[in-house]
Structure formats: C-alpha cells, structure tokens
Design brief:
Layout lengths: L1 H20 L2 E13 L5 E12 L6 E9 L11 E12 L3 E15 L18 E16 L3 E10 L7 E10 L2 E10 L2 E11 L3 E13 L10 E10 L2 E9 L3 E4 L4 E4 L6 E9 L6 E11 L6 E12 L2 E12 L6 E9 L2
Antiparallel strand pairs: 1-2, 1-20, 2-3, 3-4, 4-5, 5-6, 6-7, 7-8, 8-9, 9-10, 10-11, 11-12, 12-13, 13-16, 14-15, 16-17, 17-18, 18-19, 19-20
C-alpha cells in the first residue's frame, strides 16, 4: 500500500503541475500481470511508467517508474526517478543533440514475444537487444527519413567515468527497415542488428546481437540475444511464429544493472494462432510454447487465451497447461492488463 500511495502522490503532483507548465503527463506503460496456481495462490507483477513530457514547445522529458515483481507480499518498492532528457534540434541545420540521465530506451526493441509474459522470474524483461542506461549525450542525424544515425557518448550506470559509446545506424526503404548497432564499454564490445520486413500478408522481424564481446572469453551461443518472428495474416486469422534465445548477461530492471541470467543452452519456440473478427474488440486463440534451458530441460506448454480491448485497455486471459514441465504447476491461470494513456 505504501508503494501505491507514492504512485498516486506522484501522478497527482504531475497532473497538478501540468496546467502550470503546459506539459503532458503520459502513462507510457501500465502493465499488471497476475498468475494463479491450483492452490489459489496469486502472484502479481506491476510495472507503471510515467512520462512528464514538455511536448513540441519544451524539448524535455522526465520519467518515473514503479516496478514490483510481487505486489501481494513486497511493499518495499516505490515510485522512483527513471530518467530525464533535454533536446535541441536542428543545430546548424545538421544535428539533433539530446542530453539524458537515467534510462533512455532500448536498441533493437522486440515486437510480440518479449518480456515477463513467458519468463516470469527475476527482473529480466527481455524486451530488446540493448537497454541504454547512464548519463551522456546523443548526436542524431537523418536524411529524408530514409537514413538515420545516432551516436551515444555516456557514462554507463554503475561506472565512475565516461566509458561507453554506441552507434545506431538505420535505413528505411519502402517495406524494409535495417538497423545496425555497435558499441563499447571498458574492455567489452557489442554488436547487433535488426531487420524488419512489412508485407501484405506477412511481416518478418529479426533481432540479433552480442552485448558482451571480449573480456578474455570465447564467443558462444549463450552470449547472444536472438529473436526471430514471422507474422502471417490470412483473412481474420493471425499466425505468429517466434524463436527466442536469452543471453547469459542481460539488463535486470529490478537491480538496475547488467548481471548474469544463469541461462545456458536457452532457446524458445512459440506458435501463436488467433482469430480476430473484423471491426471487433476481441480475439481468441492458443499458443504452443516449447522451452529448453537449465531450469527447464524440455518444457511444453499449451495455452488457450482470449484477448479483449475495452475502455482503452487490453485484457488477456490465458490458461497454461504444462504438458511437460519440471519447474511449473500443471495448470496456471494468467491475467494481463496492458495500457498506455
């Protein structure tokens, strides 16, 4: 309850200040996820992100977050400062400059198969190739929106000096998007890419990268973040095929640091088939999820679900039937509410 009081106070403060400064208060993420086992035990994860945005007139932004992986039993987490940004655009009609501190964003963000929805333990959201966190400057350039480039120079979170640099290059051509990421921190290097294709009946998303190259270690499969997604649309049917591999070092949102995930030989296969009637506010379908890792040598989960869009929110109710599993209950009910406003 103490955490929720802090959230309400923060939201009230931002809303009260909005008319004074002509800014926008946005809840960029409201995500509630509850899991219920056969004994009636509920475990709820809450992620609330608030943006105080100056809009076009004021090129500034303040970010706040409340993240709690166990709302029923853990009352310690509170609304925290998550980041601040200030920008100056078209300097010498060439470059945009942004100063930021805290959390900036994610390079190579995922689309469908991401986050805590499939890996519920810990603070690893697995929502992109590389989350950017620290204090520094961003220099951005674009050419007719077809070619874009960003250079990040910053002190990475947890470091004592300016020790990090990243470059993100993008190219857009009709239905194709290609982004390349490269960077370094101390003696570690990183390299990643994202390829997106938007077709008439199918979309393709591929994101791959290694955020920890070097350090005297040999390169292995467990070092890579990899996500392949294919979206097929046939009339009112959607078929989404996903292949996902988690790296053994990734950003933990609870600890706010890059730490070991304890995952090796990890790979997931997910098949999502759903039906969405035209001009409707719901869809229904099922998922087949196959996982292999150290905790789950071979897990097979079948999950029928219904998703409803109402009052500006997406409600998803799912039942997980763990046909072959060594780490989960046979049946787990799942409710997720997601919105931004």
């Amino acid at each position: 309850m103490r955490g929720f009081k802090v959230i309400l106070f923060g939201i009230g403060f931002l809303i009260f200040c909005t008319p004074l400064f002509g800014a926008n208060v946005l809840v960029t993420e409201m995500d509630l996820t509850s899991n219920v086992d056969l004994e009636g035990r509920i475990r709820t994860r809450g992620d609330f992100q608030i943006s105080y945005d100056g809009g076009y007139k004021y090129q500034g932004k303040l970010l706040f977050q409340y993240l709690n992986a166990n709302l029923e039993n853990n009352t310690n987490p509170a609304l925290i400062f998550n980041g601040a940004q200030a920008s100056v655009n078209n300097v010498l009609n060439v470059v945009d400059i942004t100063y930021w501190t805290g959390y900036y964003g994610i390079l190579g963000e995922g689309k469908h198969y991401k986050g805590h929805l499939y890996h519920r333990m810990g603070g690893f959201d697995y929502n992109g190739y590389l989350p950017i966190l620290g204090t520094g400057l961003i220099f951005g350039m674009s050419h007719y929106d077809k070619y874009t480039g960003q250079a990040f120079i910053y002190q990475r979170y947890g470091s004592m000096t300016v020790n990090s640099a990243d470059i993100a290059l993008g190219m857009n051509a009709d239905a194709l998007e290609l982004k390349v990421f490269t960077g370094a921190s101390d003696n570690l290097y990183r390299l990643g890419l994202q390829f997106v294709y938007f077709g008439d009946i199918a979309d393709l998303y591929v994101t791959a990268g290694n955020p920890t190259i070097g350090g005297g270690r040999s390169l292995g499969f467990d070092d890579f973040y990899f996500l392949l997604e294919e979206w097929f649309r046939i009339r009112n049917w959607n078929l989404i095929l996903s292949v996902f591999s988690r790296p053994k070092v990734y950003y933990n949102y609870l600890d706010r640091a890059y730490i070991g995930t304890d995952e090796t030989n990890d790979i997931d296969f997910n098949f999502d088939l759903n039906y969405e009637p035209p001009t409707s506010y719901f869809s229904g379908g099922g998922e087949l999820n196959i996982q292999t890792n150290d905790v789950e040598p071979f897990g097979v989960i079948v999950s029928p679900y219904v998703s409803v869009f109402a009052a500006g929110m997406t409600w998803k109710v799912k039942l997980d039937f763990n046909l072959i599993s060594e780490s989960r209950e046979f049946i787990t009910a799942y409710l997720n509410i997601n919105a931004s406003f």
